[in-house]
Specification:
By secondary structure, the protein is of the alpha+beta class. The protein is 28% helix and 42% strand. It has three helices and seven strands; from the N terminus they run E-H-H-E-E-E-E-E-E-H. It has a seven-stranded antiparallel beta sheet, covered by helices on one side. Strand 5 (81-90) and strand 6 (95-104) form a beta hairpin.
């Protein structure tokens, strides 16, 4: 299975970082153009076992992605780390698991860690396709998300 992992610092409190990532609607802003996201269904409040269905589209073409939250440890005052894990139930990947971890640095800033493990298609040929096609696309998407997360937090994202 392929893996993309990044950790980056943001100039925002852990509470602010959590508020941004606790809102699945932020996914719309965090997805690089020209891909468009439309939330079709989401369980609220988010918690372990919650479902999220959304459409990823490029013009008239698209795919519905159904994810479930396998783990969900929300932000609580006085706690230095929170996280959640989403896993694809159905969608564009053969397998997809994404762990989001947020750590308080104690100085009004925090870190965001994205740890995604994925296979575009299964099997040994799938490993080659995943490495050549999916990994570069996922790396680009997460680099965009790093840029956009910092920008949204600097502009005072409100859920």
């Amino acid at each position: 299975m392929a893996r993309f992992k990044q950790t980056f610092k943001v100039s925002a409190s852990l509470s602010e970082v959590w508020q941004l990532h606790d809102d699945p609607k932020a996914l719309i802003e965090l997805t690089p153009p020209p891909v468009q996201v439309k939330i079709l269904e989401m369980d609220r409040p988010l918690k372990a076992g919650a479902n999220l269905r959304f459409r990823l589209g490029l013009g008239p073409f698209g795919v519905v992605w159904h994810a479930i939250y396998d783990e969900f440890e929300p932000y609580k005052p006085g706690i230095a780390q929170c996280h959640f894990v989403d896993r694809e139930v159905s969608g564009p990947f053969h397998k997809w698991t994404h762990r989001h971890t947020f750590d308080d640095l104690g100085d009004g800033s925090a870190t965001v860690t994205d740890d995604a493990q994925f296979e575009l298609i299964g099997g040994s040929f799938g490993g080659i396709v995943t490495a050549l096609v999916a990994w570069p696309a996922i790396a680009f998407m997460f680099l965009f998300r790093r840029f956009k997360t910092r920008r949204m937090l600097a502009q005072g994202w409100q859920a």
